[in-house]
Design a protein that fits this description.
It is built from 20 helices and 13 strands. It is of the alpha/beta class and 472 residues long. It has a seven-stranded parallel β-sheet with strand order 3-2-1-4-5-6-7, sandwiched between helices. The chain has a six-stranded parallel β-sheet with strand order 10-9-8-11-12-13, with helices on both faces. The chain is globular, with a radius of gyration of 22 Å. The structure holds uridine-5'-diphosphate-glucose.
Amino acid sequence: MDPEPRNLDAKAANATAVAASCHVVAVPYPGRGHINPMMCLCHLLAAHGAVVTFVVTEEWLALLHAADAVPPPAAVRLRTIPNVIPSEAGRGADFPSFLEAVYTKMGDPLERLLDELDLPPAVIIADSYLSWAVAAGNRRGIPVALLVTISPAAFSVLYHFDRIPSHLLSLVAVSDHVAGEEFLGQWVPGLISFRLADVKSISMATTLKRALESANWVPKAQIILFTSFYELGPRVIDSLRSELSCPVYSVGPCIPYMMPQVNKSIPCSGNDVDYFSWLDSQKERSVLYVSLGSFHSVLESQMEEIAMGLRASETKFLWVARGNSPRMQEVCGKSGFVVPWCDQLRVLHHPSVGGFLTHCGWNSILEAIFAGVPMLTFPIAWDQPLNSRLVVDEWKIGLSLKEELRKDNIVGRDNVAMLVKRLMDSDGGVEGKEMRRRARELQRASLKAIEEGGSSHGSIISFLKGLKQCKN
Ligand SMILES: O=c1ccn([C@@H]2O[C@H](COP(=O)(O)OP(=O)(O)O[C@H]3O[C@H](CO)[C@@H](O)[C@H](O)[C@H]3O)[C@@H](O)[C@H]2O)c(=O)[nH]1
């Protein structure tokens, strides 16, 4: 299937003009994995006639205006608050300080900006981690919709976290205790395959306290929006719908399928060809795309084992290695093409790409599903082990690299090579073919969800119709 942008402007022309005078104020959490899906949602709302004020820090405004960034449509107006938080460039070095600043410094400037707006907002769409945005809306009588950028299942885990016995969490935190195999579904409604061990990275995270505070604000919001689509996890959505008193909509996948293509050429270390030209020269479904996220880092020794395992598998690969690309190109040798950044959704749709080694950020998972590409999972932090469980055990469209951890917590090169062969189907087994078939099924479901009459399309229309100040 081709990755060309879908023309939503044309679609919206004959779609319901429900939002002709609807002003939406979007307040994303300041991080790539949050700003991207919020922007995608705003593109969609603009295509349905809404006017959007998209609020970011001055630093993020510059990033959104960078040469290779897709410019937002005219109906999405970017407005800034000052740089009251540490820079995006080094936030990983002291994440607790970054997080504290997000929670304590951004609320006041947002309140001032809200009071200066020329158009009255019909709704504030705030990232579900930003409780101060809910407070700001409540104080002004503006409805607040929370945009959840993690999976509905991970959201439900946070929302019901106090139901999970803390003594069991403590046992699992200190060792691979047998309690780790307990099913989470006994405490969190709607979950099937998840185990207690899957929430270890959440229960031990420095971010947990703040995330649970945000979960306490959920009942003070008027609407919940998921970046997922309903068919991906109907049980969890249904159970949240029956429990929460506000409308719950799945409007995704909120990924950039509608964005026009801009500047596909990105300089690649050690390579003088464009990575799309390189992909064009490879055999169909022969390339593994490797990206381990935009934020969390992996031990250098682990990176080297992965690189050596990929070489041993004799599979061609395209690797996004951010700051480390010259070094990784050296380690990877000739079978790999290393880039600092790429246009991920278009890469996943390239006919040469047959698999995705991913850290399991939720946006990456949604993008892989939309492209129908099976995954090799390497979850690093937070919600990612839960997402890996969905991919491997619930949807059966991937394999987990972490099942094969050595005693030193590293996945060795032999296991990497073996799993890559299984995923890419180069060992001739039926397993790879089956995963591919199921991945295509989910891809079809994601396409159906966004089409007219599909579940996400219907949810967008219901969401806009429900806003009193929008014409309907
Ligand atoms: O070379 C690249 C690499 C990434 N991306 C994009 O960057 C985004 C990355 O998002 P995601 O896959 O969700 O990863 P993170 O940025 O790590 O996401 C953070 O936010 C997610 C949503 O809340 C969580 O699920 C993750 O655990 C958390 O790390 C995706 O849209 C990718 O397409 C590119 O366009 N080019």
